[in-house]
């Protein structure tokens, strides 16, 4: 394993070290807000201790990133493949324009998480949030799956206002029965059925294995699933189904 002490290092230097390394496994310590770490990277396993800056794993193409700490804005921006696991919370626009891969956040995320997520053929982006999500979750979502567990927030809506605004593809799963009152009339909210739970159970299992959560307790709580109304005239223009 290659060890990179990121203290006082510029993000370009960090990324150059990663790309030139012969080792597949890389550990970065003392990360202090450097942006664009692992941008476009494939074929590596990266462990980060500290707080990576904006656009961690942007355009990621098959690398596994694990963060022991929080992450800032735009984690997984336009990522294509790979897995990002955050043992903490993540900022605004987490999973922005994801088109593949998986992001797991043990804590909460900020505003506009999952905005412009899209799916095509075998590519299915997945964002799993252990805590809550801020306003505009899944704004203009065109594909993929967003799961909000609301752990530790069982007596409140785990998603903020304007959830699924402009949604025209994909699904949003919210554990429990609480949703904001301003859900768009273009979005359908229904109780998740057995087939829906079977669809998301592999991702929740991965979340529980990563963070030590109770799989049975989570699955027994029930979920609401948000989907775009099939009468939405823009669906065919923006999503592949």
List the helices and strands and how they pair.
Layout: E1 2-5, H1 11-20, E2 25-32, E3 45-51, E4 61-68, E5 81-86, E6 102-105, E7 126-129, E8 142-148, E9 169-175, E10 187-191, H2 194-211, H3 215-219, E11 223-228, H4 235-238
Parallel strand pairs: 1-2, 2-3, 3-4, 4-5, 5-6, 6-7, 7-8, 8-9
Antiparallel strand pairs: 9-11, 10-11
The end-to-end span amounts to: 42 Å
Give start-end ranges of low-pLDDT stretches: 236-241
Shape: elongated
Approximately how much helix is present in the residues? 10-25%
Could you describe the largest sheet, including whether it forms a barrel? Answer: 11 strands, mixed
Rg of Cα set: 17 Å
* Strand adjacency order, main sheet: 1-2-3-4-5-6-7-8-9-11-10
- The topology string of helices and strands comes to EHEEEEEEEEEHHEH
What structural class do you assign from the helix and strand content?
alpha/beta
Q: Which band does the percent of strand residues land in?
A: 25-35%
Q: How many strand elements?
A: 11
